[in-house]
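Q: My collaborator sent me two sequences in one message, no labels, and asked for predicted structures for both. Can we handle them in order? The first one she listed is below.
A: Yes, handling them in the order given. First sequence, followed by its structure tokens:
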Amino acid sequence: MESEAAGAAQVGLSDIARLAGVGPAAVSNWRRRHASFPRPVGGTERSPRFRLADVQEWLRSQDKPLDLGAPERAWRAMDAVRGRTSIPDMLASIGLVLLDRCGEATLAAPRGERSPFAAWRPLPVRAVAPVVSEMRLGGAEEGSAGVFEELCRRFLGARSRSGVSATPPELADVMIDLAGPRRGPVLDLACGAGGLLAVAGARGFSGLLGQELDPALARLAAVRLALLGSPALVTATDTLLDPGWMPTAASVVLCHPPFAERSWGHESLVGDPRFGYGLPPKGEPELAWLQVALSAVEPGGRVVIVMPPAAAARPSGRRLRQAIVADGALAAVLALPPGLAAHYALALQLWVLQRPSSGGTHRAGIVMADAGQVGDGWPAVRRLAASLVSLLQPGTGHEVVGPPGGTVVRIVADEDVAAVQDVDLTPRRHLAAPSSDAPSIRELGHRCDELAQRSTSLAEQLGALRAAAEGLARGAPRRGDVHEVALGDLVASGVLSLRHRVPPETGPVPWKTAAILTVADLAHRQPPSGQGEVEADELRNPPIRSGDVVVPTVSAGRRARVAGPDDAGSYPGPGVVVLRPDRDVIDPWYLAGCLSSARPGRRAARVGSGTGASMKADLRRMRIPLPGLDVQKRWGEAFRRVEAAGALARAVTTTADDLLDDAGDAFAEWVAAGR
């Protein structure tokens, strides 16, 4: 069923590709080859927008029918009718209509000024009716709640549109595993749109309570949870600055707080009784959330909170961590693998705390667990969490052994934790590292032979490089025979493309997590080490390809490089520029060699900006000599040989250092063992 509102909906190139089940390149080909392809009705030249109805009609004319599902039709209809209404308020208005039609679902809402529905007027039924009509699956009213949940997840999945980082369902499951056997009431101190409480309700928790600073998200959370059959009492207020909002003490508190907030009300909280361990410094907002969570849970109740890794080790939080450990409030710390949780490249941590009570059982210590060593993604993390929970029970052992010789879960005495420098709670600091037996005489001999072979290969490459240099010197073009060209002129003529990192864009833009090539990667000659969210539209934001030339714009020693297989598929980070030459005109290795040499580097210093050892260059104004392609390829091969010899020389140096260090350690262990 297609509504009038859906006919006014607009889509981008990436939307068309996704809906038609083809790649972005296919859509570009359609636009170029077919004069009948619909004309843009909005957007920009780089990111045009088309009427969905026009696209559907064109696809039908090309025997490529577009069968949109109910969630897609409803999303497009919502985009067409919402105008200036925010997406959370639009969704909440739609949800209220669905609740009214369901009859059985109930909406729990506090009264007074803390109610998220106070002074808010939902959109009239006639305004959201076109969307609601698209949400019926096969004409059935009962399918609308499932479509509504899909719309909520889509909104939260597009960070540029939602502006919030939703808790991934997998992370929510692990948090609930760690919460233990208690099943309510459960409180989420920063519930956002209710994702964590939704998983808790599905897992059997009752008496759901939520608190959210943003009233629009609080409204959406209340409506969403009611439609899921897990009604929650959601309050709209500032958790940190409003000490009187809690209606009752919870048996479990779950919290995924915002990180690194500087304006969290530090100055207004002096003397607040909730901070029994002391008011955290301004740079430790996560420890403020932790103490508020402990104050909101009943004695003996459990708190599970997501923490950034820095909160475990920052010197500024040492005093508070020491007080929390000394009071017996910290029960466990679980370190997650880097990049596992959506939107975060960091290795997040889950802290499990238990509010001290006079009649509580004595714990053997703090359970430290590191999921970074177990692999296999979320299933392995959940298995590790189960081991952690078992160790929280008295008389169940003291450690779980993981990879060869490595302990991944271990109970550490409180006093041992407090004795570590700065009371560092990072699990790896407290777990036994994998054992490394001293290499045998045979192993040392093999490694010595390997180093000798690499050294021989390096000598051969240096000999070939010398011969190539002599040949190039004889055939070098004379001064004045080759003209210099600015990179900007090459870009203008179309033989070179120059692309920076694509900044975030508002609107319905798809995102994905991908590898990021950083300035540090170029400086250290290493593969992409970063990870982050990038726009998934490959027309607007194409990934790096093998043969591209990547250049740092800010660097003390500017080193351009030709992208290889390890770089392909990654995206440029801040300060990294991607140059894509037309190989019929410009040789990539020649271009990279010219941009890495000292002479263009000095020119970059003159045309760029910056002080000291680091300089920001305006690459468009840099000039390079541009001989014919045959000459470029000869010199490009020479530059490639230089790079290959340099990589082998660095590998030989690293291998030699490691071998000599291990040999020294082995000799010392052999002496101690009486060999």
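Q: And the one she listed second?
A: Here it is, processed independently of the first:
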Amino acid sequence: MRLPEHWTLQLVGDSHLGASLPGLSRRANEIRRQDLDAAYRKAVRSGIDSNCRMLLYSGDLWDTPRPPAMDVLSAATEIRAVADAGIPVVVIAGNHDAGVLSGSVWLEHPNLHTVTRPRPILLESDGVRVGIAAIPFIREPASWYAALSQVAADLPPADVRIVLAHQAFVGAVCGAQNFRFRLGRDVVDPARIPPGFDLVATGHVHRPQILQPLLNGPPIVYAGATDRIAFTERNEDKGHARIDFAEGRARVRFERADCRPMQFVPLDITGLPSTKIVELVESSVAALPTDAVAEVRLTGQTTRDAVRGIRIGPRAAAVRDDVLVAVNFRSVQFIANRQARAQGIDCEPVYEHSPFDDPALRAAGVLSGVPGSWVGDLPRAPGTYVLRDGGGRVVYIGKASNLRQRVRSHLRGDSDHGYFGAWAASVKRIDVRVAASELEASIVEAELVRRVRPPFNRQMREWEDYWYLAPLAGPHRQLSVTRAPETHRFAFGPFGRRMSAAMVLDVVNRAFGCAQCPEHDPLQLWQGRRKKRPAKAANEMRLLAVQRDAALCDRYFAGDCLGPCAERTPPTEYEARCDLRDACLRGELDASVLDQLSITRPGDHARASDGDDLSGDSGVGDAVAWVARRARQLRQARALLSSVVHLPGGVDGRLSALVGPRGLRFHWTERERQEALGGEFSVVAVEPRMEEPEERDGPPIAVDAAQWTHVPRELVDPLLVLVRAAERSGAAGSAS
């Protein structure tokens, strides 16, 4: 049948009703929810006002599978109003709201079709038969292809054939850094769409866009979200799509919605007292655009006393009641008052000169200049760069495989690179050091960040929150999480943040049957603090039996513990299990033991699916294998503490690094002497000395690290870079 001259459908999706922004006050989040609701109502109601013939909703109407009943009723009322106007409506489930669409009485209407499982739908509107292959969100691409093929085969003949989906397709773009989806989990290939469809109407990606057809395939249309859901969408247009069918073709136009502007407000509070922090926040909020949603991103070094009692949200509302302000402290490095006094903080150390003033680093040559045309003359080579403000203070240290491109990306006025986005105007000077390899650039960057601790190197300073596992005073060889490994006889790790270390401890104890009593269980105690019931946390674990004055907890009956407290296993067997656990955490566990974990776990009903998903796989055995790999790398990293690492050589010379417990010390070898060392990556173990000399000629001498039973947290990341490089080059064994 020939289509009418103007047959139009409306595509809406991803309203995420009820979504909140982290850091906003309760009042501000309530206003945000009202904004999202208003944008959704406007997008849906415009279908009636514009005389569209059909409304398709492409998933994620709500932000949660269990929204409040009043939110469901409010959203359903708008959808039903369109259906009451005689316009067919099809709503599919997204990855957020599948539970809401199942059996909701408020969504029952002859013109309203909700889809929670793949199925074909045949509708007629204004004399046009429309066949819809409705495919809600499916995580695995293979299952999605199979579902679409089956639904397409069952779809009756129609004048217009549409795939309605909630999926990420290869080539779709989203986010502040224009991330482009590539084939993988959760991402489907447009080339696998069966022939015969005129349009793919989809949601899931919040940026409105059209993916052009492949080999005469249908266009893939994302309507985008009806409002900005997160700060990563701050520069994206929002709204809905109108699609006109004429002469067998689909013409798409996007209807833009009016959204609040979003932006970041980065503030360095290093050394500022409370009064100055308040003044800085208030002046920054006063300069925001009208009706803006902003995130104040604090950074730098300060004490907890300096920010205690500062209610930034209410103060911002008092200055500007039209703006919504979230506060983010993740980039703040809190230090003790005693350390602040020792540093004279008020302020962190200021480098009057470049961090590249290290003679070994300057030997390769350092370029310095100001932002401008000079950046265009930088080499397209790997290297490390330092960005400084007008006072000479280092604000950021980075590395690049292409120095010119990377530095330019930072200095663009519209730069959106994470926390650095709004700092371009403060950069007044740039120092650049060209490296012989990307490995050299990475190592130099990591060491300079450790030395200087720039305020905007948040990701490179994650080691500040690393935690270890150490022996606990008491019976049964129990371990605990600690931030002070130097206070224990030995320690394992580090294994990330406190929660990560607690999960590692839980996994290895369950795998080997070692005790983790309720009063010492870090996961139980952590959950108790989160619930604000620390006194009851240890008692929340159910005690199921008592024998010989020992209370057996449910870990024993779940097969996760050998029950040494009640002598349920011979002491020699329990000691052997603890030895295996410690060997795993030292990185010395034999691979054959890992292969047999599913057999050797205590208990007849051990559940392989109970393992924490530490490595992306399921099962206790897989999780312990991840821990063992991490521990092996940490063991190799510790071995590097008494080594000299020779990095790949360049034209002018070669950089080496002495690795000691106090950091990396660089040494430059001129080209004439480089040939004796060779030009490839190598690790050389040298005779340790108890002290590092202040000044000396010749190659560096290692520091005695025999007393170290763990890797110092500030050296973990650069050492792991060296370990992985050694593994790739086959040089790992020379340091272990």
